[in-house]
Each structure stands twice: as structure tokens, then as C-alpha cells.
């Protein structure tokens, strides 16, 4: 039997394990597959990588190969918070703080938030998790006068809840998404293999009066998310030929 045929047999064996298991279950290691099928590590890894591309399994660096969770839908332009988005899908949202400090608005932050370049802002960078699985790195920049109403405990939870409690209801978001390879920094915080793909979303959130509340860059694990968008005919968007 050729190595290619064995590689396909291994992939089919893993699909059967996925079908019988639950998201988060640990699957056989590359070494165990090598022993079971009497193949090279390269052949075993090729079979596993096929299922990674099918979004059936995910590799976590230094931990192993696991049955993947269903990808979480994310709507572009939705002001729904990460915490609320996970809750409505039956997942428990949590965060790990990377950085929390006062800083100065960059030119991009200033343009997005309608403030002056160099104005004081609050910067909050966190890893966002769903059922303890790292989903994204989120870096939020908030005007200092709005962030002044937040206490230390607030920044460990939902920023959207904090905005609402302060009288600023998140009502609209503008967003732009691009795909790229993860940096070493992102691989470390998101438990990713080298050469993993991430989706980078730049987003500005506005309150009920149209005031910008938050300029956020969020880096999502590509195979744990799917993005959706609502598209309008040109005439509804103010363009087109009628």
C-alpha cells in the first residue's frame, strides 16, 4: 500500500474519531499514529493537517490535536460584545489581561475616535476565550474621559456592559477585516502552530448619539471563526443607478 493511501486511511480514521467524540477531545498524537499505521511522522502529520484544513480538528502548540469546536459566526458591523456573542451560543466567555494602561492616541486612533492625535486614552489588551479556548487577542483604545468612569474590575469583564452602565449604549460598528499569518506573539497567546492564519479586524464602535466609544483591533483565530456581512443594494447605500 502506498504512503498516500495510508495517509488517506489515517485521515478517515481521524474523521471517525471526530464523529464519535466531542469538541475539545484529545486525539492521538502524531507519534501514536506513526506506531498504529507504521508510517513516518511526515505522513501522519499530513493526514492531521488535512483535517485541520477541513476545520474538524485543531492543533494546540505543545498540547496536542483536539476535536475542533464549531466555528463561531461573527457579523461585521455588529456592536454585540464578545461576552454576549459567546453567551447566546452557549459558550462561557472569559479574558486574560495582557496590558492595561494610560497612553496617547495614535493618528489612526484619533481619526477613529474623533479626538486629537496625542490625546489621552485608555488601552486595554486581552486574550478573549470561549470555554477556556483562546479565540482572539483584542486591543481596545478608549477616550480617557469615558474610561475614567470604569473601575479596575470593570476592565476584567465586558467593556460593552461598562459603556452601557456609563450611559453609552453601543449601537453601531464600522469594521474592516483582512487575513494574514500569525506573528510569533500571536502564536504564543493563541496557542497556534507556526504559519497559522489569523483574521485581523479593525473596528470602531459608536453609542446611541453617534459618539465613537472604542477603536479596537482584534486578531481572531481563522479556523475558529466565520465572518458574515449584510450587503445592501447600491440605491439603499446612496449609490447605483436607481
Outline:
The protein is built from eight helices and ten strands.
Strand order of the largest sheet: 4-5-6-9-8-7
Number of helices: 8
The CATH architecture of the largest domain: 3-Layer(aba) Sandwich
Task: Specify the overall morphology.
Answer: elongated
CATH class of the largest domain: Alpha Beta
The average pLDDT is 83
Helix content: 25-40%
CATH superfamily of the largest domain: Chorismate lyase-like
| First-last Cα distance | 63 Å
Overall radius of gyration: 21 Å
How many domains? Answer: 2
The secondary-structure class comes to alpha+beta
SSE ordering: HHHEEEHEHEEHHEHEEE
Q: Largest sheet at a glance?
A: 6 strands, antiparallel
**What fraction strand?**
25-35%
What is the CATH fold-level name of the largest domain? Chorismate lyase
Please provide a written account of the structure.
Helix content is 29%, strand content 33%. It is of the alpha+beta class and 242 residues long. The protein has two domains: 65 residues, Winged helix-like DNA-binding domain superfamily/Winged helix DNA-binding domain (Arc Repressor Mutant, subunit A, Orthogonal Bundle), CATH 1.10.10.10; 157 residues, Chorismate lyase (3-Layer(aba) Sandwich).
Amino acid at each position: 500500500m502506498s504512503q498516500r493511501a495510508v495517509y488517506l486511511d489515517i485521515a478517515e480514521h481521524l474523521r471517525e474519531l471526530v464523529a464519535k467524540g466531542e469538541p475539545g477531545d484529545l486525539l492521538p498524537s502524531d507519534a501514536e499514529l506513526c506506531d498504529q499505521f507504521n508510517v513516518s511522522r511526515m505522513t501522519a502529520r499530513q493526514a492531521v493537517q488535512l483535517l485541520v484544513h477541513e476545520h474538524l480538528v485543531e492543533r494546540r502548540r505543545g498540547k496536542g490535536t483536539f476535536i475542533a469546536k464549531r466555528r463561531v459566526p461573527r457579523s461585521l458591523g455588529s456592536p454585540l460584545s464578545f461576552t454576549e456573542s459567546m453567551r447566546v451560543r452557549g459558550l462561557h466567555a472569559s479574558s486574560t489581561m495582557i496590558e492595561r494602561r494610560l497612553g496617547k492616541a495614535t493618528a489612526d486612533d484619533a481619526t477613529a475616535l474623533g479626538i486629537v492625535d496625542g490625546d489621552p486614552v485608555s488601552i486595554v489588551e486581552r486574550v478573549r476565550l470561549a470555554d477556556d479556548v483562546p479565540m482572539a487577542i483584542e486591543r481596545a483604545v478608549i477616550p480617557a474621559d469615558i474610561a475614567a468612569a470604569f473601575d479596575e474590575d470593570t476592565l476584567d469583564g465586558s467593556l460593552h456592559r461598562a459603556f452601557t452602565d456609563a450611559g453609552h449604549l453601543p449601537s453601531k460598528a464600522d469594521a474592516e477585516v483582512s487575513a494574514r499569518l500569525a506573528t510569533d506573539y500571536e502564536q504564543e497567546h493563541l496557542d497556534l502552530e507556526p504559519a497559522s492564519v489569523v483574521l485581523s479586524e479593525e473596528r470602531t464602535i459608536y453609542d446611541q448619539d453617534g459618539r465613537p466609544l472604542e477603536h479596537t483591533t482584534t486578531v481572531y483565530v481563522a479556523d475558529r471563526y466565520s465572518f458574515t456581512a449584510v450587503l445592501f443594494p447600491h440605491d439603499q447605500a446612496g449609490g447605483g443607478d436607481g
